[in-house]
């Protein structure tokens, strides 16, 4: 067995002596246990999850759906970026959700701003759908659709062959369609990317790089 167990372990004794797990000599990818737990993946605000090491090709069309829960007003949700300008990005900035796309001719953005006191950063689950279809882009939050005009109608393909970074990204990795460097703090679940008839549900426990991310549960109330 080479992978860790998704569980809580407590009151461990060896030779009748209880181990002190409050001050370990070293620790890696171990989080608190929670009194109440929800399905999803917890991001502690310090890191990211990296998916598809061999590279994800956005090209002309992609549909992204996910659910998020946070109390922070800033945070990276997802980015795929080439070394050139072609890229897509999803982020929360000042409590607004932004979906950026650059097909090579320039960045365009669909922005969703909650009305009045309806905050997206209220610690409740919100459903997000971001759609790129050639030069058209749209963003739907909790059933509310926004889309934006794209002056670059001749440019239709985001030519990426790069990992998908979720919740943040490493300092040495360029992200042309993200303005924030703030790692996401909160919970994500049900990340699905669809291209045509091909739908892929991403399991964060299969990330090739995972920092500050705990893939098997979200705290309902921290203990």
TrEMBL record:
<dbReference type="InterPro" id="IPR001791">
    <property type="entry name" value="Laminin_G"/>
</dbReference>
<dbReference type="InterPro" id="IPR013320">
    <property type="entry name" value="ConA-like_dom_sf"/>
</dbReference>
<feature type="domain" description="Laminin G">
    <location>
        <begin position="38"/>
        <end position="218"/>
    </location>
</feature>
<dbReference type="Pfam" id="PF00054">
    <property type="entry name" value="Laminin_G_1"/>
</dbReference>
<dbReference type="InterPro" id="IPR050372">
    <property type="entry name" value="Neurexin-related_CASP"/>
</dbReference>
<protein>
    <submittedName>
        <fullName>LAMA1 protein</fullName>
    </submittedName>
</protein>
């Amino acid at each position: 067995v080479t992978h860790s167990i998704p569980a809580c372990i407590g009151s461990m004794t060896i030779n009748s002596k209880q181990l002190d797990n409050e001050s370990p000599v070293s620790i890696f990818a171990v989080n608190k246990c929670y009194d109440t737990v929800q399905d999803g993946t917890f991001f502690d605000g310090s890191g990211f999850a990296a998916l598809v090491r061999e590279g994800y090709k956005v090209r002309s069309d992609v549909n992204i759906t996910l659910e998020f829960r946070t109390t922070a007003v800033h945070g990276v949700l997802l980015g795929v970026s080439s070394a050139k300008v072609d890229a897509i990005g999803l982020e929360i900035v000042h409590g607004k959700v932004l979906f950026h796309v650059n097909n090579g001719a320039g960045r365009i953005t669909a922005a969703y701003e909650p009305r009045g006191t309806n905050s997206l950063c209220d610690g409740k689950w919100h459903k997000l759908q971001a759609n790129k279809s050639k030069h058209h882009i749209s963003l739907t939050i909790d059933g509310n659709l926004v889309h934006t005009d794209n002056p670059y109608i001749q440019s239709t393909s985001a030519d990426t062959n790069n990992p998908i970074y979720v919740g943040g990204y490493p300092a040495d990795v360029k992200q042309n369609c993200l303005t924030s460097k703030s790692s996401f703090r909160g919970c994500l679940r049900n990340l699905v990317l669809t291209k045509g008839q091909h739908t892929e549900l991403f399991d964060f426990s299969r990330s090739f790089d995972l920092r500050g991310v705990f893939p098997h549960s979200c705290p309902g109330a921290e203990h």
